[in-house]
Amino acid sequence: MERAFSVIQFGATGNGETPDTKAIQSAIDACHENGGGTVYFPPGNYVSAGLTLKSNVTLELEAGATLLKKTEPGENVFLQGERIENVTIKGRGAIDGRLIPGRGVFTLVIRNSGNIRMEQVKVLNSSDWALTFNGCSHVKLLGISIIDGRKDSIDLVCCQNVQIDGVYIKGSGDDCICIKNESEGHRYDTRPDCGFLSENIVVSNTVIEDTTHPAFKIGTGTAGIFRNIIVHDCIFRNFNSVCCIQLMRPTMKETPDRVIENVRMSNIFAEGCNCLVDITQVDVAGPIIRNISLENIRLESVKRVSRIMGYAGAPIENVSLKGISFAGQVLTSENPLLKMEYVNRAVVSEWSVEGEYSPVISLKNCKEVLTDKILSSQKAPLLKVEGSDSERIVLDTGCLATAPEAVIAAEDVPERAVLPEVAGPEYSFVEGELSVLAGSGFNGKLMVKNKGAEGWFRRQVTVNGRPAALAESWLYRGETKEIPFTTCPLYETGKCRVSVEGQEWETEVIQTPGKLWIDPSVEVREEAAGFAFLLRAQNLGGTKLTEALYLKKNDVVLDEAAFALMPGEEKEICLRSKCPHTEGDRYQIPGYLDWNFRLAANTCSKYEMEGNRISITAGGKLYSDTGELEYLRIFEYAAMYQRTEGDFEATVRVMSQDFTGQYASAGLLICNNMSRAEEDRSLVVMTMAPKYGAMGIWRADEDGDGETEMQTCLSANYGYWLRIVKRGNVFRAYYSSDYENWKMDPNIARVTAAEKTQDVAVFSYANSVRNEVCRAVFQDFTIRKL
């Protein structure tokens, strides 16, 4: 018969004030030394510092019993055990981490152990990860509740044979159920005994609600192998994504190949979610992701695009998305339900959408994708296909709804990439312009009659034998349709022939005056003496054009470039400053450029301004030149800025940014040393980042040591407004979705050096492991003095 060891018998009081650490640990030790049994907690509040679990011991917390964490300097774990087995924590009582401030305390950490079981118990107020199993096998979490934790709820690190059933998670401050392969300190010599392996993990009958993070996530630590992972029959409410696979932080040279395979999620009800799936691998090189299945999932109020993104050297393989229904969306071809890039072999089947918009799916450089049984409205296209590597995009024509255009294909999509094609259609010109002005495109229409089954119609349009346009559309069985097209601009004056495989139309190009066009995007390169400004100029008219551009600094001409352009000709124009940049310098290319800028990017910087819209393209490595991982730091960026004295309010709207890294940054940057390198290096930053589709980050380096003292994540989206208000040395962050209703972040930055003049900037930073560049688009950047 199993022996029972009451903590009261060992001197515990349970009065909520007197520390019971020694009594509880004595009971655990005695139970273990006597061959095992149950350590029993009757009703009461037991205050304790860190405790060590031991083999063959069950902790049973009766209803009304709460184990409370005592604040103890230097402790970072409440309950821990290493190389133990046959340990159970059960009962209707609770373990309360008390949300200890500062770095926080892990509530439970068990390492390199087996046969671990938790039943019914509640885990409350964890100030760091709530439950952590590192290198463990045969773990069961049954009917437990995890409520109001500051960080992750369940972390399975290099674990095998895990069952999570009937779990309730509410108010998780970070990831809810997270599977990782990583080592302590990200060092190979601290890896778990089992190596970097996570496999045979099942999650079922679980409810997750009220978090801004994913319900289920693999990553971000992703060394080694993940396989055979199943999630089924769950309910998720008010959360980020149903499924997130995120590969980040390649911190160890010895890290083995990353393989994630055989992941299946099914029978999920998701309400108030940001997106269905978020699979990204931008921050690692050459991973293998394959055999991913999501089936029978109902989503309500989806807010963002779902992403499955491989890249050219590492496509994601064998993806199945079946039986997905959406309700309450307002999404279009510019904001689709699903975006897949470099995915090989995928099935998207049995989708339905309630509402006014179709389930638009964007495919870029994908191969062997089948879409079938898609129930959609008639207001938007079904597929948007891009990329020269696209191949065998197949629509099951018998199951398509009659959207006006089933497919939109970019010009770089190869012939026969979208299948099936219409067989033997009849077509002829029905309309075309008799003359066009030089610099304009020819507008025409084909009348096409489909005499067979549904399919994709696409024909090359030529002008005088040179490719000039594509006439394309999806045609349903027996449909007769007018298909409009517009050629590229025509510059050669006189008669010309517009042809479509034997069908011809004659038009005349009328001469026009020369017309100068300057690309509003200006590339700036740092040189030994000053900067080079590179612009693209083109003659959009029909006669030769001679022009000149000037570069000024503080209204003084530094350089001039005279050039001639034939009709349609395009040239790169280079203007050089030929002198060092000094504090407060303002550069001008009259009519095109008038701003201060900062260039600190490893690859290139481009700046563009049209009306109230600004775009900045910048590099920025994930690693420093010394090989150090730059996590949430900004040391390479491109910025446009103003020197601003006193108190102010800086506001900008972040419209979009390229997905070059999880923490690619675009937003507001305020510091002292942008124009004066000798100044204090403290800064405050409020940015958007592509992680989880979109998120806001507010952080500060208050003392200029290169480390972040304050950081919070914001629930935000592209198109949000960001605002920083400075009063004295105090900075506050605000954000808004509509410019009318603003929310203030509770965290305040205090920067001693902020009494000085500030550089106030919008900036972009790529955070790329492959030295890519990130283009960020901003709108309405303003600085208002207070």
TrEMBL record:
Pfam families documented for this protein: DUF1349, Pect-lyase_RHGA_epim
Keyword Hydrolase (UniProt): yes
GO terms, molecular function: exo-poly-alpha-galacturonosidase activity
Keywords attached to this entry: Glycosidase, Hydrolase
Transmembrane segments annotated in the record for this chain: none
Enzyme class, spelled out: hydrolase
Classification via Gene3D superfamilies: 2.60.120.200, Single-stranded right-handed beta-helix, Pectin lyase-like
Residues of the signal peptide: none
InterPro entries to which the protein is assigned, alphabetical: ConA-like_dom_sf, DUF1349, GH28_Enzymes, PbH1, Pectin_lyas_fold, Pectin_lyase_fold/virulence, RHGA/B-epi-like_pectate_lyase
This enzyme's EC code(s): 3.2.1.82
Domain Rhamnogalacturonase A/B/Epimerase-like pectate lyase stretches: 5-234
Full protein name: Exo-poly-alpha-D-galacturonosidase
Organism taxonomic ancestry: Bacteria, Bacillati, Bacillota, Clostridia, Lachnospirales
